[in-house]
């Protein structure tokens, strides 16, 4: 690890999103920053989640998830609902506004610029995390605005990463 300077990794660009799912009436979601579009025909995305997270468990069972793209003005307190509470003990959807998307998935609408709904095609084990490759089934722009970048979450909002986040290594830079 001595040859890895976390500042170099911090220069990679990420957004901040809420990834949600539902399985057998149980809704849950979490903050993620590891999300990319990987193909355009068909449109596929990849999302990375920690193996121990409740959302990961539900996505594996449901094989579907939604993504809410957060706007730059989202309050840190709101991010905390989905970033620092466990859905096994706390109903995050009672603390926000959401709709049921066209595929039946919950989509958080508070502070959200756009939503994407996807079905999981494959899951790749990556040490402490699982990488979900999914095909987009629906996408909708909800309002105009600037998306929250992960670097701004740290530099402007002074937010930290949860211990299980892929980017928790950046907390040492605070």
Automatic annotation (TrEMBL):
Identify the keywords attached in UniProt to this record, alphabetized: Oxidoreductase
Q: Name one GO molecular function term.
A: FMN binding
A Pfam family of the record is: Flavin_Reduct
- Record organism: Aminobacterium colombiense (strain DSM 12261 / ALA-1)
- What protein name applies here? Flavin reductase domain protein FMN-binding protein
Does this UniProt record's set of keywords contain Oxidoreductase? yes
The question of whether Oxidoreductase is a record keyword is answered with yes
Q: Which domain of life is it from?
A: Bacteria
Residue ranges of every copy of the Flavin reductase like domain listed in the record: 9-155
The taxonomic lineage of its organism, from the top, reads: Bacteria, Thermotogati, Synergistota, Synergistia, Synergistales
């Amino acid at each position: 690890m001595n040859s890895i300077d976390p500042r170099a990794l911090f220069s990679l660009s990420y957004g901040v999103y809420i990834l949600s799912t539902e399985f057998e009436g149980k809704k849950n979601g979490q903050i993620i920053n590891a999300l990319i579009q990987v193909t355009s025909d068909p449109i596929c995305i990849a999302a990375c989640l920690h193996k121990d997270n409740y959302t990961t468990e539900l996505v594996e069972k449901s094989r579907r998830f939604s993504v809410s793209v957060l706007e730059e003005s989202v309050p840190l307190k709101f991010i905390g609902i989905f970033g620092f509470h466990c859905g096994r003990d706390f109903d995050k959807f009672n603390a926000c506004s959401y709709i049921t998307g066209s595929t039946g998935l919950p989509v958080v609408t508070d502070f959200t610029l756009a939503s994407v709904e996807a079905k999981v095609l494959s899951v790749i084990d990556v040490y402490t995390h699982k990488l979900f490759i999914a095909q987009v089934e629906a996408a909708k722009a909800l309002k105009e605005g600037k998306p929250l970048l992960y670097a701004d979450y740290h530099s402007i909002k002074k937010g930290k990463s949860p211990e299980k986040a892929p980017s928790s290594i950046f907390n040492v830079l605070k």
